[in-house]
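Morning, I've got a small favour to ask if you have a moment. Here's the protein in full, and shout if anything looks odd to you:
***
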Amino acid sequence: MDYLNEYYSRYDEEGRLLSRHGQVEYRTTMKYIRESLAGISDPSILEIGAGTGRYSVTLAKEGYRVTAVELIERNLQQLRAKLDGTEPIVTMQGNALDLSALPDDSFDLTMLLGPMYHLYTREDKLRALSEAVRVTKPGGRILVAYCMNDPTVVQYVFGLKHLQEVMELNMLTEDWHCISEPKDLFEMVRTEDIASLDAELPVKRLKLVATDGATNYMRETIDAMDDETFERWMDYHFTVCERQDLIGASHHTLDILEKAGRTDEI
């Protein structure tokens, strides 16, 4: 975990989501958070890997009951600094792999919007997902964000001319799947990898969404757009972000799951 602490002590994740191109991912994620909360009276929300609180703090300030769990102390400090004490939020340091401090069947919505970026083995991925499912109420939603494989191949390997380096370091399989270790910070997946994980859990997939779509291929263009053009881009993005033929080309995706056992009361 030292790699993560070092990375997040330097990286401005808050600034990324506030940038114009980062707003696409943020607004898309918020759209599906709100969709998941629709029709639920006084929902309870858990964010695992809450970072600096871009989502948790926003929701808490809107009056939602939120529990925010974050591994990195610096991130947790920044999150807490945004609160004035009136928000219905509980913050705690914790690990996505062990949520034993939280009881079963407690939350209407559970979000993992970062932890899967930094889990490198199938065992750890399933452990984090299983913990998220465990603490979610039957019929509740689980939202899971992933970093996708092929945009990294296109942009980093070829676009930024790292082909020779990654080949020498054996960071690619013969079928061009990225191989990551903790020192590489980010784990890349394909849509079939996500489906394979879901198949091991007592969940039903509702949607798999491209949270930024084509945006990160043209960051400079997006950041230079005037407000009207950017809103047109958002309209286009929302129109195509659920198209399954485009999902694997998005840098980030959001897997929207429902825990088995839904009842009429939920």
